[in-house]
UniProtKB/TrEMBL annotation:
This is BNR repeat-like domain protein. CDD domains: Sialidase_non-viral (cd15482). The keyword Membrane applies. It comes from Bacteroides eggerthii. The chain crosses the membrane at residues 38-54. Keywords: Membrane, Transmembrane, Transmembrane helix.
């Protein structure tokens, strides 16, 4: 847009206004100051109007297609979603596409197949061949995009479509028979007809790919309301990701934000003890997490305590630690919680913390820890890639002993867990010959709770099915997706003895292990139902998450009559392409 008003440029207007301001200032200092403020106010309004007007001239495109991402085009930027760091836009990239957005799929898929706009415009498409039928309206521009890396060179050819039928869909040129995704370029692009993720969306990240939802936790409050916490949403530019708390007063149908970015704490859970609401986790953010801390809320989750330093009330163990939203258990007059060490470069050590039930949980002196047991890959078959154990759950076993059932990060089959036994408040033991068990989905975080009505232990997990092990594409998953990252299936599993588990219901099956993840389920019993929250990675109108691990949604699910009814499977078919392996 040409920034001119009444034949005056924006710079001319600014100079006139500033000149008048100086004139008034010389005549009357007070009036001059007032005039400057007034001029500045109207100038900001003027700039805002000009910006909006400028943006309104840009065409907004909608595209249809399978597994479509939106990526900004600039020198050095990665071309394809999950394409790896090598295939980037080089210095020979045509200037006409720089600064625009691109809509495309992973290399092995067709990409967008239709496009439209709300106004007349020119649409650019890049195709991997020169056999586009001009009768379809796509005319070659003569420009070429060369995408090269070591041993790889992809040639794309630009086509232009003179779009004069606002609102109508037009077909997009297809790639060659065994070629790579077609690419659409535009000032602003959104993906049309995107499926909604399963369940109820509580929140999604403000900036796709820049933030991700982590640490979903849920609690049913004494009055029946649901309290949920997570990190990664409502993050402002330049800020760290704090905890955001949500509340539902209608059994999960609608949600209200109680508090945004309230304290930098990771791996926290929510629990009630003696009618007081607590959250326990580690101070800091993600890999920088440090001391074990506990927070207290006296108003239902709106405001929370937070320690000022390592000596403050609320810091209950100093060091570097890791955990997840996992349960606390009351046992033998104490409250117990599983933890792990989180020292970079060292294998995690599993341990359990506890405090007397009548003690001040906010005081470090109330808490004691067992010994730590370090993970050892020598316990496992040499053919397995087993990296660590983390995110343990304390639970009372059928024999009356307290145990820590812990995730085994197995990237070969993903279906293992381990059981460590708490002998007393100072002692944790483990027998690798007897206490490594088969556990569907044990390679990813899970929450275990015991149900007194059914007499069973329950968990929601991400089991690995054989069909997903075989899926791959030409980018970062050219050798397939490691089992530790296969999170596109969600199941409800149960056991009578903690050692033999079965899948009662397969809740979600998606055919997309690359971008879909229904993970880190935290859940609670609510009468005949289970209520759960998940960090969910899924398609949206802005494109795709980076990968299945990096969730863009916080979602809520209800499993009705879970003890007696067969819960129907939600089947999601998002990949439908002849080139997909």
């Amino acid at each position: 847009m040409n920034f001119r008003v009444c034949n005056l440029s924006l710079i001319d207007v600014m100079e006139i206004l500033l000149s008048r301001s100086k004139q008034y200032g010389n005549e009357n200092k007070t009036n001059g100051q007032w005039m400057k403020k007034t001029i500045l106010f109207f100038l900001l309004i003027f700039l805002f109007i000009m910006r909006v007007a400028s943006q309104s001239e840009k065409s907004i495109l909608e595209v249809k297609g399978c597994v479509i991402d939106i990526i900004e085009v600039k020198y050095g930027a990665t071309v394809f979603p999950q394409g790896g760091s090598m295939l980037k836009y080089g210095i020979s990239t045509p200037k006409c596409i720089l600064g625009k957005e691109s809509a495309l799929s992973i290399m092995d898929m067709d990409g967008p197949y239709q496009v439209r706009s709300s106004q007349k415009c020119s649409i650019l498409a890049a195709v991997d061949h020169l056999d586009v039928d001009s009768r379809e309206g796509w005319i070659p521009t003569g420009e070429k995009i060369v995408i090269a890396s070591t041993g790889i060179q992809l040639n794309y050819y630009l086509y232009q479509y003179d779009y004069i039928t606002p609102g109508e869909w037009v077909n997009v040129p297809s790639p060659s028979e065994k070629g790579t995704t077609t690419i659409i370029y535009g000032d602003k692009i959104t993906v049309s007809e995107v499926m909604q993720p399963p369940g109820t969306v509580i929140a999604k990240v403000a900036h796709l790919k820049k933030e991700s939802v982590t640490n979903p936790a849920i609690l049913v409050l004494p009055n029946g309301d649901y309290l949920v916490a997570c990190s990664g949403v409502f993050v402002k530019s330049g800020e760290k990701s704090g905890v955001t708390y949500f509340c539902s007063k209608d059994k999960g149908k609608t949600w209200k934000v109680l508090s945004e970015n309230n304290g930098y704490i990771s791996f926290y859970n929510l629990f009630m003890h003696d009618d007081v609401l607590y959250s326990m986790g580690t101070e800091g953010w993600g890999g920088n997490s440090r001391n074990v801390i506990i927070r207290r809320s006296d108003d239902g989750g709106i405001s929370w305590t937070f320690p000022r330093d390592s000596l403050s009330e609320g810091v209950i163990k100093c060091g570097k630690f890791s955990t997840a939203p996992v349960p606390v258990v009351i046992y033998n007059g104490r409250i117990w919680r599983a933890m792990e060490t989180g020292v970079k470069g060292e294998v995690p050590r599993a341990f359990v913390m506890s405090a007397p039930i009548d003690s001040n949980l906010m005081k470090a002196e109330s808490w004691v820890s067992t010994n730590g047991i370090a993970f050892n890959s020598e316990w496992f078959d040499k053919k397995l890639v087993v990296k660590q154990w983390v995110e343990g759950n304390v639970v009372i076993a059928p024999n009356g002993k307290l145990v820590d059932v812990i995730r085994v990060d197995n990237w070969t089959n993903g279906n293992m867990a381990a059981i460590l036994t708490v002998e007393d408040s100072n002692t944790l033991v483990f027998n690798p010959k007897e206490d490594i068990i088969n556990f569907p989905g044990g390679g990813k975080k899970f929450t275990i709770r015991y149900d007194t009505i059914s007499g069973k232990y329950w968990a929601m997990t991400n089991p690995v099915f054989e069909q997903d092990k075989k899926k791959k594409h030409s980018g970062i998953y050219k050798k397939g997706v490691p089992c530790g990252l296969i999170r596109n299936n969600l199941a409800l599993i149960c056991s009578s003895d903690l050692r033999h588990w079965e899948i009662k219901d397969t809740l979600i099956i998606s055919d997309n292990p690359f971008f879909h993840g229904f993970q880190y389920a935290d859940w609670q019993f609510d009468g005949k139902d289970i209520v759960a929250v998940l960090r969910t990675a899924f398609d949206e109108e802005r494109g795709l998450p980076k990968r299945q691990h990096d969730a863009n949604f916080l979602t809520f699910m209800r499993l009705c009559n879970f003890r007696t009814d067969k819960i129907p499977t939600i089947k999601i078919n998002s990949i439908n392409n002849k080139n997909q392996n």
